[in-house]
Amino acid sequence: MKILHIPRKITPHPQRVTGLYASRKNDSYIGWESQLEKDVCFLLEHNVDVVRYESQSRTFEYIDNGKKRTYTPDFFVEYTNGRETYLEVKSQKFVDKFKLDKQQVLEEIYKANISFKIITEVDIRCGYFLENIKYLERYADIPVKQDTLDIIAKIKSKYISIEKLSELVPLHEIYNLIYFDYFDVDINSQLLKSD
């Protein structure tokens, strides 16, 4: 089995939604071929352990029943600890069929000790993290006034609710600051969502 650094081109498909995710982390657009893949872009973008990620960028070339075949995982991810992994994004109902169809290449991947993971909507859409990040991303380009930063700096309490803080400064600026990790907020909990 060979790993080729040849990206697979994402093309429009009549039965699939495709698009581009504007990644600040990669300073580029990341292609996706399903709503699940788009959601993975949000998760990778906001995972502090991810240095960078690519879509459809590496292809495995392998032999199956005497024929040369190729398989391109959905994502290649590099982590801060130097680990690299390949992600395949599948709806839970298609995982067994995928494993059966790709049995040969998956065996070779595992034998070669290559980090590979199949993730489904169960992994992707659990808890509030994804929902919160999608909501907060709307506020990423909202400017934060110096007055707001000055008010926040004067707050004596180390812990303050979003509701209380929104009585002092505009909520849309708070959401921008949360998006850029200015505050220590549990992004896995449900956030207030009204301006």
Give a structural overview:
- By secondary structure, the chain is of the alpha+beta class.
- The chain is 32% helix and 23% strand.
- It has helices at residues 35-45, 95-101, 103-111, 121-124, 129-137, 146-154, 162-165, 171-179, and strands at residues 2-4, 19-23, 28-32, 50-55, 59-64, 67-71, 75-79, 84-89, 116-119.
- A 4-stranded mixed sheet has the order 4-7-8-9. Strands 1-5-6 form a 3-stranded antiparallel sheet, with helices on one face.
- A hairpin with a 4-residue loop joins strand 2 and strand 3.
- It is elongated.
What topology does this entry show?
Layout: E1 2-4, E2 19-23, E3 28-32, H1 35-45, E4 50-55, E5 59-64, E6 67-71, E7 75-79, E8 84-89, H2 95-101, H3 103-111, E9 116-119, H4 121-124, H5 129-137, H6 146-154, H7 162-165, H8 171-179
Parallel strand pairs: 8-9
Antiparallel strand pairs: 1-5, 2-3, 4-7, 5-6, 7-8
Q: Please give the radius of gyration in angstroms.
A: 20 Å
Largest sheet: 4 strands, mixed
Based on secondary structure, the structural category is alpha+beta
> What are the secondary-structure elements, in order, as H or E?
EEEHEEEEEHHEHHHHH
Average pLDDT taken over every residue: 92
